[in-house]
Structures are given as C-alpha cells and as structure tokens.
Design brief:
The protein has about 400 residues and is of the alpha/beta class. It contains 14 helices and 11 strands. It has a 7-stranded mixed beta sheet with strand order 2-8-7-6-5-3-4, with helices on both faces. The longest helix has 18 residues, at about 290-310. The protein is globular and about 55 Å long.
Length: about 400
C-alpha cells in the first residue's frame, strides 16, 4: 500500500477544493441564501402548504411551550425527552389519520430512517420506487439488506421484484406524492401487490398529509389504507403543519417495535417541546378549517395551468408541488436567481438531487396564495425565463 507523502496540516483538505472546482462549471454548487425574519418575498419555494408557520395560533403555542417546558427536550425520548406534549401529539395524529398509534421523531428524515431500518433486516428484502426521497434511500442503505430500486410508479415491476425475491420478508417503500414533480403513487395497486406477496407497505406521506384526503388526512387515508394492519405511514410536521419534526403512524406493534429498535429514535434528542406544541396547534387549525387543503389544490392547479398557457413544460400537480423544466442546471440556477431578484422565491432542483437528471424550478402552492400572488408569480417567472425555454 502506497501511503501519501507527508504534508502540512493546511493541505489535508485540499481535495475538497478540487471537488468544488468540478461542480462549479456544471452549475451544481449549492449555496445558502439566508432570508430575513420579515421577508417581503413571495414564497413559492417553502413547504408551508397551509400557511400556518406564521399563524399566531401556531407560533403563539410554540412560544408558550418554550416558556413552560424550556428551549429543548433535554434528552432522548427514552430518557428525559418525552413530555406530555409529545404523548398528546402522537395520540392526536393517530386519531386524525386513522392509525392505531403514532411515534414522533425529531424530523421527517429521522422518521424515515427509523422506519425503514427497523422494519427490514437480514431476513427482509426491500423494493422501492427509484424516485423516493433521499431519507428513504439512506434508510435502505443503512438496512444492509437486499434492495431493488424499481421503475417509477410501476406496480407490475414491483410485483415481479417481490415474486423473485430471495428473502422471506419484504418491505415495499414509496412516497405518496413525489417531491420533485408532485405526482401521486398508485397506492391502492401497490397495496394489492403487497398483499399478493406477503409484503408490508411503507408510505412517506410528507407531501400528501394536510393536502390530500378528507380534511387533509393524507394520501394514505384517501386511498382507503389508513389503519390497515400491513401499512405504515411516515409524515413530516414541517410541511402542512408549518412546524418541525416527523412521525411514524401504523399498527401498535409496529410503533412498539420502533421504540425498541429504531436507532434514529433511541439515540436522538427528542423533538423540542415548542415544535410539538406548534404541530398540535396547527393540527387543531386544520381540524377547525377543513377547507384549507382544497385551497392548496385549487391554487396549485391555477398556477400550473397559467404557466403552461405561457408555453412552459409544467407538471400536472396532484398535490401542492409543481415543477417547471429548465434547459440545464446553470439556466435553472440563473432563472431562480432572477426570480428572487424580482421578489419571488422559487425552488431550484438540479442533479444530483433529481433522479431523472432534469433540472427544473420547483414551486409549491399554499392555501393563502391570493389571485394577485398568482399573477405576480406567473409574470416574474415568465419574464425571468431563459431564452427559448417556453415553446
């Protein structure tokens, strides 16, 4: 083995500069863009679907909880990090979504890591849609078992993978609403395939919860799968509820198993009480204003149809997420930057973040968007577009 020659401490991370230089010419460099507390930008980049992040009822509940319970959870959920707020939130989430039980994590990412790793293992095969969220992909990697990534939204391919698996158990993993283009997974068909082959179904409903289903109960509820004994759902509290955190919902024995084995639950500090209180308050708002999800969907359809009418290649939104294709990573970044300069913040998705390699603007509709907001968004996006992008 040839060891590197001795070098100075300043040279140890020189390889990082080389790696960064490779990203720059392709327009793939990521940069933090801090926003102010009172930004006047029109936000079409965040995931505050119901417009509750700044709602006084929600923010007020967070502030009151911080004063009562302290700034942090002080420990893991199995130590000192479980409060009465966590227990109440878990009960209310399960009841609202039609599940037997729920378990709150510090984020949607850790909820997915915990669910995938705890529900797989040496005796399991995992079959996943190849466009699932990165948190699910990381969970599959950490599972250390056989993983088959299948063509997007293809129940027949998943059926084949289950039928030819080499392990006795199986877990099928999918998003409900895919976070790049906003398309909806065929959940009923996937459930049927799973039952034909004795597999469990794990659905990340981060972008369906609060937007789809009766009163915003989510895509799993809308598909008639809520409370089913072989279906597990994960959600975030940072999208429709405008708070922070994540949760796993499912059969009681699944939740019990996660408490015993999910490392991202056992060894992580619990969700801050303020975030738990905010999520509880936001869930209360959603219950009292069940028309909010329909406003999200209406605004998503309006925004996408208006942009499509100008000649852009726009996805058909099945929830709040809309994508507008760009010619290249560089043009997508420049396009998003020009929009921001004119007061409209949009998302910019480029490789390697997008599994299909297509760069795009990613827009999110909100319940509180006005007709004037939509007019402004369409005008700014159109006027900022790269030459020739609209057909």
């Amino acid at each position: 083995m040839n060891l590197p020659a001795s070098s100075s401490p300043e040279q140890v991370f020189d390889w990082l500069d080389t790696a960064a230089e490779k990203l720059d010419p392709d327009g793939l460099t990521r940069r933090l863009r801090p926003r102010g507390a009172s930004s006047t930008e029109l936000d079409l980049a965040g995931n505050d679907y119901l417009g509750l992040a700044r709602d006084k009822r929600v923010a007020g509940a967070a502030a009151a909880a911080a004063l009562r319970w302290g700034a942090g959870a002080t420990g893991s959920r199995l130590g000192t990090g479980s409060t009465e707020l966590h227990t109440e939130l878990e009960y209310e989430l399960a009841r609202f979504c039609g599940a037997q039980a729920a378990l709150v994590f510090s984020s949607g990412f850790t909820a997915n890591l915990g669910a995938v790793t705890a529900l797989s293992g040496a005796e399991s095969a995992i079959v996943t849609d190849k466009y699932v969220h990165t948190s699910l992909i990381e969970g599959c990697r950490l599972s250390r078992t056989d993983v088959a990534a299948i063509n997007h939204c293809d129940p027949a391919a998943i059926k084949h993978a289950l039928a030819t698996r080499r392990k006795p158990r199986a877990l099928v993993v999918t998003d409900s609403v895919f976070s790049v283009d906003g398309d909806l997974a065929p959940l009923r068909e996937l459930s049927q395939v799973c039952r034909e082959h004795g597999a469990a179904l794990l659905v990340d409903d981060a972008h369906g919860f609060g937007v789809l289903g009766e009163g915003g109960r989510g895509a799993v509820h809308a598909a008639g799968l809520a409370g089913e004994p072989d279906v597990v759902t994960t959600i975030t509290l940072s999208t429709a509820l405008g708070a922070q955190g994540g949760a796993v919902l499912g059969p009681r024995r699944v939740i019990r198993h996660l408490v015993e084995t999910a490392r991202s639950f056992i060894f992580d500090t619990g969700l801050a009480p303020a975030s738990a209180a905010a999520a509880l308050a936001a869930l209360g708002v959603l219950k009292s204003e069940p028309g909010l999800p329909e406003k999200v969907l209406t605004n998503a359809v309006t925004l996408s149809s208006r942009l499509r009418a100008t000649g852009f290649r726009v996805s058909n939104p099945e929830a709040a997420v809309i994508s507008v294709q760009a010619p290249s990573p560089e043009s997508a970044a420049e396009w998003a930057g020009r929009c921001a300069e004119q007061g409209v913040r949009v998302g910019c998705f480029r490789p390697p973040s997008v599994p299909d390699g297509v760069s795009r603007l990613r827009l999110t509709a909100r319940a509180d968007l006005t007709e004037s907001d939509v007019d402004t968004a369409v005008k700014v996006i159109s006027e900022s577009a790269p030459a020739g992008v609209a057909s």
